[in-house]
Give the backbone structure.
Amino acid sequence: MKVTIFGTGYVGLVTGACLAEVGHEVTCVDVDPRKIARLNDGVIPIYEPGLEPIVRENHAQGRLHFTTDAAEGVAFGELQFIAVGTPPDEDGSADLQYVRAVAATIAEHMDGPKIIIDKSTVPVGTGDQVRQVVADILAKRGVELDFDVVSNPEFLKEGAAVNDFMKPDRIIVGTSDPHSEAVMRELYAPFNRNHDRMVVMDLRSAELTKYAANAMLATKISFMNELANLAERLGADIENVRLGIGSDPRIGYHFIYPGCGYGGSCFPKDVQALVRIAHAVDHEPLLLDAVEAVNRRQKSRLFELLVEHYGGREQLAGKTFALWGLAFKPNTDDMREASSRVLMESLWDAGARVQAFDPEAMEETQRLYGQRDDLSLVGTRDAALKGADALIICTEWKAFRAPDFDLMRESLAEPTIFDGRNLYDPYRLAEEGWTYYGIGRGKSVRRID
């Protein structure tokens, strides 16, 4: 099949590459000429495990094309995917200007039947807006062309997006048109062979399904962080609680890890957007408001522990902290809404310095913050420790799970760890002379003198 995808971000590029990988012909359109030039040269603009080789291979085989020519893209495929960003507006609602712009572009250039597919995460009712934009422009052009608008939300985890696309848990398709359903089944047949993963529903339900999924996962995280804060005050260990409740199959172990808050391009934006959607129909989303409030507070928890440990915010001035992990989660270089950013900015405001390392997000950190006297980006995790007063962990990269604690002790001014992801055994570290602060692990475990 011939497919056009507008947008070459995480969703568009992964979608295009994976569809090409199974034999479809794909043209990806983007307004950024530099990005398109780099993609044509085999340079991938994002870090996503497994993506680079399939982009290069399918581009070389002629199944994956990149262009800035919107007319070329519209002419290419019967299926027109909209996979552009929907960033939060000032009030937290999803900004649909890019979605509407692509819809208008398709309508201006189409000269035959098209199926227009919303792949972007969009508020309920966006499909109707897209349909109206296309219909209005076709009417102005004085032409009658068949088209349909379909919702096909993505469920891709950053860091595992290629595997998620190639081996989906479910394929949500929102349409009431039999022809569009048949075309979508043909498109996804290579991913749907051993059992039927496709769930077909009305367009608005498909749009809400995406928000509901992310809001549910964000709720689980905020719930565990709320319990973690309670556990600290009760002298309980949230890790034991996690094991206890996770063993219940109705709850499960996924997304019940306490930490220093969730980030990324999806959960914060989508929870905020769903709150605005609820308010727009005069519904007070009490639970969603709490999910967002807990997460905002949790991102400050590490800084609060630092202030408590050193006896006041003013005592942080002049200190240097090693920071492991800058990306909002492992296996990505994405720092959107990352907890590390809240922490670093709080430390800088207090007059402290940061020596940071992340396996993939160093360039993004440099792009965001530029050159600062109070920020050093170093080449290894161990180099970040040298001369620092304490270690702080924000991202649970595998490379951080089994460090050389003897070397760490030699490098740090004091054997102190503030662990935002509960990577280590606090009781073992206490026996070895460390002061260890986790999230929800009872009273801080201080070194045994």
